[in-house]
Amino acid sequence: MTVADRLTGRELFARYAFPPNELGYCGPEGSSQAELGAHAREFDGAWPYLEAIAEAGDLTDPLDPVVVTAYWVGGPKLASVDPEQLLTRLRGAFAGQVTGLLGDLDTSAPVLAHHSFHVFVVYPWVRFLTPNTDNATPLRVLQDCRIRWGTVESVDNQHVVIASRPLMFRDGELAMGDARAERVRWRRDAVALTPSAPAPGEIVAAHWDWVCATLDVADAHALHTATQATLDLVNAARSAAHEQTQTRPGRGVSR
């Protein structure tokens, strides 16, 4: 049973959108978790992807649970979205904004209609990663903003400890490291994004400081696949940009 089988699209969207909205990063101000699904169109970062996935799958509702699952988690629906058309759509949607690598990509790049693409490519934080410097701040933002998965090791009244693979920046490339313990919230007072406390051994998805959903093995695999594909794209784009910089006149390398 997948996430899409358990929730409506609006409920699912609200679960994943609540953590950054609570922090004031995206979406309407002052919205409760219950209200977020109705305001999904106001999440300017997510909406173009949802529209692209829905159109590619001949679905009329960008908040169809299958569409929402594909954007936040992943899965086969992502393969139906034409990368070149998506890149054109995103460049139009975010024109005039400071972005990371969005303007650097070739039209043949394997652009993915997944939240990880927005985090690692559209957001500008990736540009602040430089070798041999302190990258703690941009790495922390990228780590917290991406949807990550982990296995629950312990649970208390408001938090869980999960074993999750952290984002690393090594030798000039982004990668996922070995699993380590991470403490995230599943409840704060009466607010919870899951109907009950996660149980040890379950796989959960986390966004910022919150557990958003319980995942099955297929969900976790889809999330890993989409995230890795985006990291591969980012590393290739950064490498190509570096090579172009090194071969410009005046750098001692013939063209």
Rg over alpha carbons: 18 Å
Largest beta sheet: strand ordering = 5-2-1-8-9
Total DSSP helices: 9
Q: State the secondary-structure class.
A: alpha+beta
Low-confidence stretches: none
Main sheet record: 5 strands, antiparallel
Task: Please state roughly what percent of the residues sit in beta strands, choosing from under 5%, 5-15%, 15-25%, 25-35%, 35-45% or over 45%.
Answer: 15-25%
Range of helix content: 25-40%
Task: Give the termini separation.
Answer: 55 Å
Q: Assign an overall shape.
A: globular
Mean pLDDT, to the nearest integer, reads 90
Number of strands: 9
Q: What is the chain-wise order of helices and strands?
A: HHHHHHHHEEEEEEEEEH
Model description:
The structure is a single chain. With about 260 residues, the chain is an alpha+beta fold. The chain has a domain at about 5-145 and about 220-245. Helices cover about 40% and strands about 15% of the residues. It contains nine helices and nine strands. It has helices at about 5, 10-20, 35, 45-55, 65-70, 85-95, 115-120, 135-145, 215-245; strands spanning about 150-155, 160-165, 165-170, 175, 180-185, 185-190, 190, 205, 210-215. The protein has a five-stranded antiparallel sheet with strand order 5-2-1-8-9. It has a two-stranded antiparallel ribbon with strand order 3-4. A two-stranded antiparallel sheet has the order 6-7. Strand 3 (about 165-170) and strand 4 form a beta hairpin. The radius of gyration is 18 Å and the shape is globular. The mean pLDDT is about 90.
